[in-house]
Design goal:
2 helices; about 80% helix; single chain; elongated; mainly alpha
Length: about 190
């Protein structure tokens, strides 16, 4: 190897023309290889090219699937139709009859319950009214008692004021006499 730079293995330093693409090179139309290539193409398409067979299998599978699906859906629809018919013919009349039988009894019970609740409400209303009347009577009694108490307090205050006034007058008289007596002794 020379030290001039990396060399490609297997290639010389001279530029070689690129190899020709074999697929692009087609033999001449009049060449004896032409029938062989045609035969090889037919063998290839029969042995190795399975696209037509696979497409046929796919079409067959889709056709079978749609037929089975259609039959399954028909069975489901038939079962639904039978169930609805059975419900309309047997179950619905039984339900209607049971509802009519039980509905009248339930209606009577509801009316009885409604009447009982109405009576309870009336009793409760009367009890509230009675309690309110008692409360008003107690309140009026308390107000009357308070007014009496206030009158008594006014009277007692007037009595205390009168006693205080009398005591003040007595004290004034007593101090006035004391001053006179003191005035007698002060003149000595």
């Amino acid at each position: 190897m020379s030290g001039a730079g990396p060399a490609s293995p297997g290639r010389g330093s001279a530029a070689a023309p690129p190899p020709a693409d074999r697929r692009r090179d087609s033999p001449a139309a009049g060449s004896p290889i032409q029938p062989i290539i045609k035969d090889v193409g037919e063998v290839y398409s029969r042995l190795l090219d399975h696209r037509p067979v696979i497409q046929g299998e796919i079409r067959y599978f889709v056709k079978e699937f749609e037929e089975k699906r259609g039959l399954r859906e028909l069975r489901v629809l038939e079962n639904l139709k039978n169930t609805i018919f059975d419900a309309n013919e047997r179950v619905l009349p039984k339900c209607e009859q049971a509802m009519q039988d039980n509905l009248s009894e339930t209606f009577k019970r509801l009316q009885a319950a409604n009447a009982m609740i109405h009576r309870l409400q009336e009793r409760e209303c009367e009890a509230r009214k009675l309690q309110a009347d008692k409360m008003m009577a107690r309140e009026e009694k308390c107000i009357a008692h308070w007014e009496e108490f206030m009158r008594e307090q006014q009277n007692k205050r007037a009595e205390v004021d009168e006693e205080h006034r009398k005591a003040m007058e007595r004290l004034k008289e007593q101090y006035a006499e004391m001053e006179k007596e003191l005035a007698k002794y002060a003149s000595f």
